[in-house]
């Protein structure tokens, strides 16, 4: 499987993590991470989760909205980020940059943009 030009094995457990959750979903820790990225000038557009963190998020949302409320992460946004489940045991990464933020930063002048500036999948890890 390939993602953003990088080959990922079926069960890659060596993916870098921004933060690590053990037994519970930690919204506060995720908020601190997102705020730090925003202060760096990048508002993340995607939240990548491994299987363990996906389970923790489903339990967390189930407590708030009922167990049946979240059966899948298709088109699910959490804290303004699209949730993407990865085929790995554990991972929490935030990446990408919201398109409108890029557009606003440019003063809505798109004449100097390159084709890849319009790509939703231009994800920034780091």
Commentary on this structure:
The chain has 126 residues and is an alpha+beta fold. Helices cover 28% and strands 15% of the residues. It has helices spanning 27-39, 51-65, 99-105; strands at 2-3, 6-7, 46-49, 77-78, 81-85, 92-95. The model is unreliable at 1-11 and 118-126 (pLDDT under 50).
Share in helix: 25-40%
Structural class: alpha+beta
Strand content: 15-25%
Radius of gyration: 16 Å
Task: Give the spatial strand order of the biggest sheet.
Answer: 4-5-3-6
Succession of helices and strands: EEHEHEEEH
The rounded distance between the terminal residues' Cα atoms is: 21 Å
Determine the mean pLDDT: 77
Contiguous helical run count: 3
- How many individual domains? 1
Number of strands: 6
Query: Which ranges are low-confidence, i.e. pLDDT below 50, for 5 or more consecutive residues?
Result: 1-11, 118-126
